[in-house]
Design goal:
The chain is an alpha+beta fold and 90 residues long. Helix content is 34%, strand content 23%. Helix 2 links the parallel strand 3 and strand 4. Helix 1 crosses helix 2. It is globular and about 45 Å long. The two termini are 18 Å apart.
């Protein structure tokens, strides 16, 4: 909760647990699920792994990110869905 309102937190985390970037969103949607990883990759390079919950928006976003990486010749990261609440995204 931020100022009494529920928000979704998208985070890019270094392999040692340091937060590299984050985005707070009022709701889960495909646009944020694509926009945030694209911004994080622009700053930090392609990920080795994507950890998401099982929301439809995140799943569709990861598919789109993998297609974009494939077009640029980057190896697609593995993704490991996890069951979490709205306040999560790895």
């Amino acid at each position: 909760m931020v100022k009494g309102r529920w928000v979704c937190l998208y985070r890019a985390v270094h392999k040692f647990g340091k937060t590299l970037d984050f985005l707070l969103s009022q709701r889960r949607n495909k646009l944020d699920a694509v926009k945030f990883p694209a911004r994080a990759m622009d700053t930090n390079g392609p990920p080795r792994k994507i950890v998401i919950d099982k929301s439809a928006a995140n799943t569709k976003g990861v598919r789109k990110i993998k297609r974009m990486l494939k077009r640029f010749g980057c190896p697609a990261p593995s993704n490991r869905p996890i069951s979490t609440t709205c306040l999560s995204m790895g």
